Amino acid sequence: MKKLKIKNEEVSQLLDAEVVSFPKYATQLINLANQNAHGTRPEVVGQMSELIKQFKGRKLEEWETWYLSKYPEAIEKAKTKILQMIENFKEVITLIDAQMVEAWVKDLVIVKTFVGLKFQEAIIKRVAEHTGKTYKISDPEDEAKGIDGYIGEVAISVKPRTYESKKMLPETIGVCIIYYEKVKDGINIFFEDI
Fold first, then answer.
1. What was the pLDDT predicted at 10?
2. N or C: which end of the chain has fewer CB within 10 A?
């Protein structure tokens, strides 16, 4: 069996597409600005995966003509949104100094790591408060059995909500499971009576 790899630049060449070069770091900044500005979301430029299926042509120039006939202002709207975010970046970049970078690194390495890895305790504590019971975080021996803690006398395991759909897993914990899902503004918790 043979294996081939086509690099991105080669794909463009094979499709006779123009290869555009940008200064170093420019595409990373534009991408970041676009992520924040939502400049190329479907509501601005259309659902590309669906549009390309509808397109019956074969050449780049045909695609451009066809696309712009359907979304004549999309490029301009996306550009405006992204450019505004770039202006926001320009404003804030002058405020970034060594002290701010150090605070950011500390927040990431110390605070966010701690919160991100210790959130199971927060979940157990919150459910215990909700049920009016005490809680205890498990010791290494209990952790080895899949027990993350106790609410009252009930052994608890904290699992992501996606774990629910994986019932075929061979693991049997035999304890009460609290499910969670991380959402943009916090953590949703799901549990039965404890």
1. 81
2. N
